Amino acid sequence: MSWNICVVGAGKIGQMIATLLKGSPNYRVTVADHDLKALAEIAKLGVATKQIDATDEAGLAEGLKGFDAVLSAAPFFLTPAIAKAAKTAGAHYFDLTEDVAATDTVRALAQDSKTAFMPQCGLAPGFVGIAGAALAAEFDDLDSLHMRVGALPLYPTNALKYNLTWSTDGLINEYCNPCDAIVAGERVKTAPLEDYERLGHDGVEYECFNTSGGLGTLPETLNGKAQAVSYRSIRYPGHCDILKLLLHDLGLERRRDLLKEIFETALPRTDQDVVLVFCTAKGRINGELREKSLINKSFARQIDDATWSAIQVTTAAGILGAVDLMRTGKLPTQGFVKQEQIKLDDFLNTEFGQLYRAGDTNPMNKAA
Question: CA 147 to CA 129: how far, in whole Å?
Fold first, then answer.
């Protein structure tokens, strides 16, 4: 059965989602936004468009009628309005948000819904939760699960060793908001930019530190089952120290508007990027203390004669893999659905999840 999809948000991720859906025989797709210039770019892809103002509650709900599913690729602060409109329209709802408060709103809307609500479906939260849950399930007794994700420039040139590859608002939220974790068997909030560590992969050295939102609902799911669960962002060495200078010493954590202006003025965007997912779990299997890791590394690539960044591809594949599993009956179609309800192999075998296999440089992760 084919689905009729409305993607709300005509930005870089919305464009990627629309391109992938357009290439599938299982979907029809329309992209909605208030920005006519952005919609014109979508139309160039051969995709249907619709002008909708997400701040107009009644108009938004009316505009979403007739769709099987609504996918929000809009900024996190529009999540509650879009999710509410999807419920009114009777459509399944998916989004990419890393914002904890927005996800709480979606969960509340799902309580008495006849359709499914599945937030946090991108890369992190999203794919990393699916991968982390799969890794945790391999242990009889799980001690720790640490998940680390980075969307990084291939060729860093500035002191931050960073380029903008996705939402600036989302990036600042990650650096400034409290982080969910399990520490010593208890669910806690930890400080962003703390729990610093170094790691290396393929001859490249990275640093990692706490950031907000990447775990999704995993701390809730693994509560009472693990002693330690954490999420950290991967960056090149030196990034964290500069962030602490900006946020703490200069007080920009209290001036997020100014920090956003600085980032968007000073940091160029790039499509030459790499996405690294690095999950490690430790625990007991058949009574023996073991450690296992799952590593996935993706690069920018050509799709439909256009270059798409690694963050665009992996984020779009994350949400569309979830959509495909729901369409084919492998996920609940009513109420709140968590990322960790997805089996990793099921996800990787969807037409969109296969993009993670195609971009993965680790042959151990290629097996079906």
Answer: 8
